[in-house]
Amino acid sequence: MPENKKNKTDALEDNEHVEDETAEATGTAEQDRPQVPVYERRRLSEEDGGPVPAPGAESGERPSAGAGSRCGFAAVIGAPNAGKSTLVNALVGAKVSIVTHKAQTTRTRVRGIALDGEAQIVLVDTPGIFAPKRRLDRAMVETAWTEAREADVAVLVVDAARGFDDTVDPIVNEAANLKIPLILALNKVDKIHKEKLLALAGEASERLKLESLFMISALSGDGVEDLRGFLATRMPYGPWLFPEDQIADAPLRQWAAEITREKMFIRLHEEIPYSSTVETTSWKSVRKGAVRIEQTIFVERESQRKIVLGAKGQAIKHISMEARKEIEEAIETPVHLFLFVKVRENWADDPERYREMGLDFPKK
Ligand SMILES: Nc1nc2c(ncn2[C@@H]2O[C@H](COP(=O)(O)OP(=O)(O)OP(=O)(O)O)[C@@H](O)[C@H]2O)c(=O)[nH]1
Ligand SMILES: [Mg+2]
Prior knowledge:
Blueprint: E1 17-19, H1 41-48, E2 70-78, H2 84-92, E3 110-116, E4 119-125, H3 135-150, E5 153-159, H4 169-175, E6 182-187, H5 194-207, E7 212-215, H6 224-233, H7 252-267, E8 277-285, E9 291-299, H8 302-309, H9 314-331, E10 335-343, H10 351-357
Parallel strand pairs: 2-4, 2-5, 5-6, 6-7, 9-10
Antiparallel strand pairs: 1-10, 3-4, 8-9
Helix pairs in contact: 7-9
Bound molecules: guanosine-5'-triphosphate and magnesium ion.
Guanosine-5'-triphosphate (GTP) is lined by residues 78, 80-86, 99-101, 103-106, 127-128, 187-188, 190-191, 217-219.
Membrane topology: Peripheral membrane protein
Region (G2): 104-108
Keywords: Cell inner membrane, Cell membrane, Cytoplasm, GTP-binding, Membrane, Nucleotide-binding, Ribosome biogenesis, RNA-binding, rRNA-binding
């Protein structure tokens, strides 16, 4: 029986707490940030340098929500690693959802908001769909299908280089039962030959009743604008749900936790990314307009905590520095980031962790 470390790390030691720069973080006027901040469309798209600029970002002209305005939800679904989050970011023109080379990066619904003419398209990025084993897997997969069922249209993203393999087949079969228009995005076309792509498109059209099919590269931006234009025409008429400069609906503190998780996914290997979760526990304004952010990384075992820290704290320093840089750039504010690593053997069975992630807690 592994020793239960539940309370061990409640008392923080110095080496479990990392600030990647020396900073005086004892400011005055300490106020919590608003829970639901507005992401500034232009600023984030310029800073992020994503493959597709936000609509109107160059000219400064904003489309208005006039009489012909449209607004709706487009769920982006598919197998893990298909490029869903990359696509959502490209459609929005800013990084709203984290991306890594590893499968099962996205864990919960992430909404990004794109504009096209008079349409506001709320893109719903979802966790990759796969055969779930753990409780967390089940919550992720269930979220993906729930979001697809509740949207106005679904965009099924398929990695064209993999085609309709065993991981995609069950998704295609289930997607055929959706009662909303289905759009297929054959992604990563930069990686495959045209003949294979055409064969795949033919197979898809036979198997699925498609509203439309796009061949895209979410990474390079090829075909992304066309897809956005098409989605705009499929949004129902109605007023916009979000202000025109808002690009995401998640609280900034949740987004910042995701950025740190992304850096962990990239830096750490094997089971660590799948055995960890990150939460922002504190976000306070401090002196000179800076913010002090505290985040907790939960892992399942003491051995994992050691790996996250790394020899002489090198791993966590790197993660912290990378995350801080990106958060700073996005919010255009100096950031003092403190990371704490805690062992919670059963965090993946703790309803509170699911609440923090925005996931429903499956009974088993
Ligand atoms: N070559 C190429 N790579 C891509 C393209 N789109 C995404 N990728 C890469 O594919 C990997 C996975 O991308 P993600 O956007 O995280 O995939 P996802 O479908 O959101 O994955 P999960 O969140 O794990 O379900 C990353 O390394 C991306 O850079 C593309 O059009 N071309
Ligand atoms: Mg993703």
